[in-house]
Design brief:
8 strands; 103 residues; 3-stranded antiparallel β-sheet; 0% helix; mainly beta; 5-stranded antiparallel β-sheet
């Protein structure tokens, strides 16, 4: 993390045998976070209730968002959205992502 403005991550599948199916990485969003995408490709922008905007970029997978349910000790169960990165499972498959606070 660079001064709290960037979060970078990478997941790699290490398999015994021949994997099959889909590999998914999911990010459940907090309440009232809005997902904005200007076009079908390129970064996704996450607009927080306080007006802060985070850009989300990825590689090695397809992106979509979907409905989800999140549990919170304060709110209990509630509906939310989730970001989903998805690709075919394969040995040594990698999915990378970066969240950056826009200034």
């Amino acid at each position: 993390m660079a001064e709290g403005t960037t979060l970078v991550g990478q997941d790699r599948m290490i398999a015994n045998g021949t994997p099959s199916g889909l590999l998914s990485v999911r990010f459940h969003l907090a309440p009232k976070v809005m997902v904005r995408r200007v076009s079908g490709e390129g970064p996704v922008r996450l607009v927080l209730p306080n007006g802060a905007v985070w850009s989300f970029l990825w590689e090695g997978a397809d992106f979509h968002e979907e409905e989800s349910v999140r549990q919170s000790s304060y709110l209990g169960f509630h509906k939310t959205r989730q970001l989903v990165l998805e690709t075919e499972a394969a040995a040594d498959r990698e999915i990378a992502r970066i969240f950056t606070l826009e200034q």
